[in-house]
Amino acid sequence: MATEAVQALLERCDHVHLDLYDGAEHQEGGEAELMVPYLTESRSKQKILCRQLFVLDDMMQLLESTDQLFNEPCPPNPSNEAHRRWKVLKSEHKEGVQEVETLISTLQDRMDKLHHKRDRLTNLVTALEKKKDLSLQMGESLKTAHNALHVCEGQLAQLRAETDATLDRSADWQHLRDALQGYVEETQGVMQCRLLSVGSSELCVELRPRSCGSSSSSGQLEPLRLTVSWSPDDHFHLQVYQGTTWLLEESMKGHLSHLGAALLEVMQCYTSQGEMLAEIQALYSRFAIDWRPGQSASVPEDCL
Predict the structure, then answer these.
(1) Longest pairwise C-alpha distance within the chain
(2) Which residue windows are coiled coil (predicted)?
(3) Is there a contact between 277 and 263 (Cβ–Cβ < 8 Å)?
(4) Under a CB-based contact definition with an 8 Å cutoff, are residues 232 and 222 in contact?
């Protein structure tokens, strides 16, 4: 490395100066090795000195420019211009502050309106949620009502079917009742007996003997009404309604099994004395006559 540095240095040196040395000096390698560090250090110092000179030159140029500035005249009334610019800046600042305050006020109003709208929207959302819940409840109620309606329709259809069946049965019973009524009338016509009323423990019948319809010189025999009552011990009590009780027993009692025989006996007694009973009934209808059972005689009411 040292030999190459020496070669480079010799190439850069002037040949005139190199001729001052004889060949013997070039051959002395020890001196060359001593000169290389010295020359390298000198080169470094020269570079530093050059840099310092450049800095000094720049400083001198700067000083010369400041002298020119000092030699130039000052602008007239610098304080007035600064004051005017300060006023302009102050006015702009004031206008800016006012504009900012106006914007802040406008923004505050908008914020208040937004808060009001937000509260209103919140209330509307709450009301909507309530209506939604109410709608769901009404939907459930409507569904329940529909189910109940379907059940009621099914029950109504069933009741209609039962009603129709009942009406059909009622019509059948009506026809049967009419038929039975006809049979009863025919039977009563044959039996010379007509049922007037029926109770839980009493019935009223009317005996119509065959001679009842025949006319005579004295009059006609009226039907005989009887009342038959019975007790829980299967006994009956028969009583005559007509005013001809003096011809018949006033009442008859006995077991229910003898009721038919008792009615037949009353019928036979009533028909056997039909002509006399017809005359007596005619007298009762024409004249005021009273019957005294104790005397077995009829007495005009004028003699009473």
Answers:
(1) 222
(2) 97-131
(3) no
(4) no
- Residue 298 phi, psi dihedral angles, 5° rounding: -100, 140
Give the SS3 label for residue 252.
strand
Return the sign of the alpha-carbon dihedral for residues 267, 268, 273, 278.
Answer: positive
- Alpha-carbon distance of 31 to 179, in angstroms, equals 174
Residue spans per domain, the chain: 100-191, 192-294
Q: How far apart are CA 125 and CA 119, in angstroms?
A: 10
Rounded CA-CA distance 7/46 in Å is: 21
The larger pLDDT score, comparing residue 135 to residue 60, is at 135
pLDDT in tens, 82-98: 778 888 888 888 888 89
Pairwise CA distance, residues 191 & 207, whole Å? 9
How many other C-beta atoms are found inside a 10 Å radius of the C-beta of residue 270? 23
DSSP 8-state class, residue 294: T
**In the structure, what pLDDT confidence band is assigned to residue 291 with cuts at 50, 70 and 90?**
low
CA angle, 173 then 177 then 180, to 5°: 135
* 15: Cα within 13 Å, side-chain hemisphere: 0
